[in-house]
Amino acid sequence: MSRGHLPVAERRDVRRALLDLVRADPRAFGAALALNSLAAAAGLAGPWLLGRMIDDVRAGHGVTAVDRLALALLLCALAQLLLARWARYVGHRFGERTLARVRERFVDRALALPASVVERAGTGDLTARGTSDVTTVGNTVRDAGPVLFVNLVQALFLVAAVFLLDPLLGVLGVLGLTPIGWALRWYLRRARDGYLAEGAATSDVAEILAATAAGARTVEAFRLQERRTAASRDALETSRRTRFHTLYLRSVFFPAVEVSYVLPVAGVLVIGGALHSSGALSLGAVVAAALYLHQLSQPLDEILVRVEQLQSSGASFARVEGLARVPRAAGEGDCPDPDGDRIDVTGVRYAYDGGVEVLRGVDLTVTPGERLAVVGPSGAGKTTLSRLMAGIDAPTAGSVTVGGVPVVGLGPERLRRQVVLVTQEHRVFLGTVRDNLRIAEPGASDEELWKALAVVGADPWVRELPEGLDTPLGQGGCRTDGSQAQQLALARVVLADPHTLILDEATALLDPTTARHTERALAAVLEGRTVIAVAHRLHTAHDADRVAVMEDGRLTELGTHDELVAAGGAYAALWHSWHGDLPGERRASV
Ligand code: ADP
């Protein structure tokens, strides 16, 4: 696959993003920390009270003393239960809010991505990041994060308690835990790369499936089934291999850890037993220390499981945050406002992804209010040129400016006031009519929306919808036909109100039954604007102020229809062949 994946965030950026998330909700985070500490402290009382009981019994104290300790034990257990539940509740609320923030930021960033980057990376990668990766991160901040937190606090308190009982036993306990540290280091060194590879392989599978499904007809027409099946199989095989690798890492790590839990308890019992016989320690202290260390296995277990989850979600978070690293187009956002409406294409060269040049030095000036038709054989570079003029992509060399400012530098908000590209694809988005229109102008009032609908002749049918502007469209909502979808798209153009429109095949594939309808709407939208039309029919070119002929990545002829016909070049040949050989209204594709 020649497609480049979207970037992945560095560890440093991931850490910073995590800190930002905590900073965004400091009170909830602080409350969760405080409640967890209190719960852990209440939990520590159990073994200590049990040790006291043993010492009391050995010292021959009565039943009342033991009963009192038992009651305290019960109360502490109850307090721990309540505090832990409260802490969990606060932690989960923090997690949910954080997840919402991660999601919103992802959507904002995805929408701000330059179209060329999305095209190059493929929608599969973006979809995989927006779905499975965000879900993984979500599970972590909502569930694993709070649990990890609780257990970390508990483990720290348990170790501290052993140190308080007897520093020597504390040192023994910590030494006994070192093999876990080794196992963890071995695992962590390999896990990030392993999980990143697994994520990338999942994206590839999603990408191949999406591309095959979207191009199913082409695949059938060219009998590419076997090749696509083989590609899918390869992607699945890679995905399987990466999954087996991470499974291997887990299957070494966890058994090693299990064994390590027993060591500190055994060590404390042996050495603590010896110390007790020599009278240096009470039996109660040894029992309490052993119980603490035994209890340690529970939070440690949770921590290690979550560390594992943290690794895979760390990789997911790095992929989600990676969107922030997509380079903005040169100087985007900080370039000055355009001075005037003139479009200048100067020495423009362009190659897709380092391939051969498809534009090889194009110079063109489009003056405000002009109607320019761009004609030429298929593959000459007409669409590529219109994409560069619409600021969707930056030229490899040379510049495309509007009012003296590079179009790619304008950013979506300012760009749509200047130049809008209208293609034959008209999308109706899931949402109300109002949502569909406000994409172009988020602050538009209902009055402005109705005005735009009236310009394109769509107000009669929108008025007849059950809830007018509030009627939901798209799947599950009200269905729109082709010409209605086109009208909505054109109404969006009216709302964006750019001074220049680039029409690429905008009317080439119109349904003949609705063509008249849409052409009328289109004519209303074009009124008073500069129009650059990639013309697929010569009669459109005939009506234009000037005609530009493109051949093999270059502009070979430029002038009015009459001038070009008189010059007797490529355009004249096309015109004569169309005009002379073909009867009246037949349309020639050039
Ligand atoms: P036209 O609109 O005149 O038919 P295009 O601008 O679509 O020409 O294409 C010009 C050349 O660029 C063609 O050779 C085409 O194969 C190539 N091309 C177009 N789009 C892409 C793309 N996304 N990736 C690589 N090459 C492309």
UniProtKB/TrEMBL annotation:
PROSITE patterns: ABC_TM1F, ABC_TRANSPORTER_2
GO molecular function: ATP binding
Residues in ABC transporter domain copies: 343-577
Membrane topology: Multi-pass membrane protein
Stored Gene3D superfamilies: ABC transporter type 1, transmembrane domain, P-loop containing nucleotide triphosphate hydrolases
Keyword annotations of the record: ATP-binding, Membrane, Nucleotide-binding, Transmembrane, Transmembrane helix
All copies of domain ABC transmembrane type-1, residue ranges: 31-312
Subcellular location: Cell membrane
Residue intervals passing through the bilayer: 28-49, 69-87, 147-165, 171-188, 247-269
Major localisation: membrane
Superkingdom of the organism of origin: Bacteria
Family matches, as PANTHER family: ATP-BINDING CASSETTE SUB-FAMILY B MEMBER 10, MITOCHONDRIAL, ATP-DEPENDENT PERMEASE MDL1, MITOCHONDRIAL
Protein name listed in UniProt: Multidrug ABC transporter ATP-binding protein
